[in-house]
Please model this.
Amino acid sequence: MDLSTLQPVEAAVTLAVAWIALGGLALGFARRPAVITSIIYPAGALVALALALTGVWAINAPPSAAILPAGLPDLPFHVRIDALSGFFLLLLGGVTFGISLFSAAYFRGGEGSTSLVCVQYHVFLASMAFVLMADDAYLFMVTWESMALSSYFLVTTDHHREENRKAGFIYLLIAHLGAIAILLSFGVLQGGLGDYRFDALRAANLTPAWATTAFLLAFFGFGAKAGMLPLHAWLPEAHPAAPSPVSALMSGVMLKTAIYGMVRVIFDLIGDIQWEWGLTVLLFGAATSLFGVLFALMQHDLKRLLAYHSVENIGIILIGIGLAMVFIGSGHPVAGALGLIAGLYHTLNHAVFKALLFLGAGSILKSTGLRNLNEMGGLIRYMPHTAGYFLVGALAISALPPLNGFISEWLTFQASLQAPLLESSVVRSLVPIVAAVLALSGALTGMCFVKVYGVAFLGQHRHALVEKPRDASGWERAGMLWLTIGCFALGLLPVFMLGQLNIVSRALIGDGLGEEALAAGWLWLVPTSSQQASYSPVIFLLVIAAVFGLTFLAVRWLYHGRLRRADPWDCGFPEQTARMEDTADGFGQPIRHIFEPIFLIRREIPRPDDRAPVFRQEVEDRHWAWLYRPVADLTEFVSRHVGRIQQGRISIYLLYSFITLIALLVFAL
Amino acid sequence: MTQAGGVVFQVLQSVLIVLAAPLVLGWVNQCRAWLQNRKGPGVFQPYRVLNKLFHKDAVLAHNASTLFRATPYVIFGCMWLAVGIVPVLATHLPFAPAADVIALVGLFALARVFVSLAAMDIGTSFGTLGARREMMIGFLAEPAMLMTLFTASLISQSTSLPTIVETLGGRELVIYPSMAFAAVAFLMVLLAENARIPIDNPSTHLELTMIHEAMILEYSARHLALVEWAASLKLTAYVTIGFAIFVPWGIAHAGDWSALPVALAALVVKLGLAGAGLALLETVSAKMRIFRAPEFLGTAFLFATLGMLTHFLLER
Model:
């Protein structure tokens, strides 16, 4: 092969196939798990890194396409990489590099059969890569399905536990409901021509009613996969059930393929965006983000809590995308580009910090066996490395400057402040209110991660430890360190990524940020003009660090640095046990109090004369009661009645076939 | 004025505010003493307290982690940055573009998260209680604060404070209904965020009601001094942000250095009045129950939203 004519698409396909090959290789080493963990996972990580670089290359190169020598006769698979695919490949590769490094140690003597997990893991990765490269609806759906199936098997790795099987079932069910909607959306988009290549879908002319139908189908289909309200129910069940690196992959990367699909179909294939669609996305996004964080605050299972935060962050991404659609739909593409860039930036940021947090949760789970926050406590004293990385992730997800989560929320705020451009005064005043919802969920996230960090890592031990928990091992630390660097790099030097995203935006909607925005230099983040708004995370951090250092020295120079250790003061109370600290549930009490109507709370309060008093409280998702159970009941009711025609006698079935045949003949003639 | 001169000016301005911040707190306390028919310790009392604290030996709980020891320095750094960014005397600040109003809110949130984490570090009952309440106040106050700032930003088409000051300071002197609503909301947020009555009482150590004091119970000596100093800086930062948005007159505009003496005089008068007003407000009102706080801050949010809507509907 001649390297000078190599196209990004060829490189990316090769790398994805390499992942599948690595998975196949793992089968051969089923008896020697050490080979799998210390060679195949790191090799997979290197492939991921190469894929990330290919992504950067693809953003800066013209789109390249190819036809794969696979698929059905006369129906080959088309692949194509443009800037949007390149960006998502960068996300997939960059985040997977950290997760695969972590996995190298995590799966050592871990859950399930090492070789099978390794196969599923790499097939899962390759299918995600192909979803991002697909250039016809056929390949897209095939890889979309193989992504869903391989992740289903990963979710049910520990299938001996009933709740995991149940979680897997719910996941598969909603994934398929979503897939049907996506399939129908492609069906509407082809406009009766029967050509499912994306080029043909782009060219098809749709009436506004059909375009809206295609939009709604795609929005809810991809929304189901992304965990959008009210189709989020599978997410907090499935993500915690999987092994932690897989949870990181699912939350960090797989949800993002749904965002990719949504952006691809709405901005690229449908193209002609109405602002009403944007408003729909915006409102669903706001509701999803607020709901996700409120439920996260109610959780005491660390992985479940993180899963609810994924719901929240998908909401934030949707707010960005919705803003973009509102602005583009009303003829303001520059403001729209800002919204789109904010949404995509948050997509990448969430992938990085959520993967980091899930890996941290995995480290805790591995060394202590605990998932329940109420049993942890004081882990910072045993696991200082994990504690450090987790702190960075927690600050990043809480949208605190100068880390990466803040950048994308800041950009989203800036996009929403372009509201005066809009003509309709209702939408104009609605947009800043959505921004206030975003502010509220950001602040609530801060509260939630103070809870997580304070209860799990700080304070006293709640659990009677059999042996001292060990800190994360070398590979695990390397994985978390990579993602931590990502949080800092994306937070401190956002301009580089902004430049890449600007290319994506230009390729996608034909417009990007203004001239002044990119001319400000690497130090300054300027969305529109430096008069309007600017932010410099580097100066921000430098000032705080300089004051920190100078104060530290000045206090020692002017006064002294004497220190002695004593018992805690605590207003003079002589004894402090771990039972006197706040638990995770206790910390969420103000939220339960303030937002009571949103939750379905079941309380069991003992009577005063109870000999063995038990206090129990459960918080349930109202969606189960008003949406999921009625639908499940209806399905059961219908299938019971359909079941009546199944008599189990062959003559009856033959009769059915005969009647059908007659009916078809009548119909055809 | 050159860029270098601007940098020197900005550093000097921030040092001035950092040194003067305890004085603002001392003035508020003195006014309150007068209003309560007490003689009061004098306006320089906070400096004496800080000096005393810096001299003492730090006492640290046995299980305190590095996070606990680093937090006072972190929040002091955050608050220094905050007062350094706000155009207190002049709008010509080369570093001001480093953080706009949204980043300022993020900065306060960063400090709040660190204090709350430090409060939970030792694992005492009061520390966690304080952290929980502080985060509750925080998440209620933040959206209201942002909505207030958005109103100002939408009017001036900018989220950068110097631009806001120059735009709003250049308008004719009439009462804008949107800004009136926003000012009420801002005042309510200011009281809540700075642990003042009616949300919290800065001079109480009554176990069941304290919020901010509960979080810093375990701090002593230099750590406590820095935390207290940072608290007075935060109050000063909030008050000067309020000046910049609602009474921007007197602040020297870019390039106009001859206006500096006037700006300084205006600042002293404004701070004097604001401190006396704060003391009056704290004397005539009583502390609320903790679960009235959501209503209080919900009202603030409502006012801020009303302000924004009035701007859209009436003032365009």
About this structure: Chain B touches chain A through 83 residues (CB under 8 Å). The two ends of chain B are 36 Å apart (CA to CA). The mean pLDDT of chain B is 88. The first strand of chain B starts at residue 58 and ends at 61.
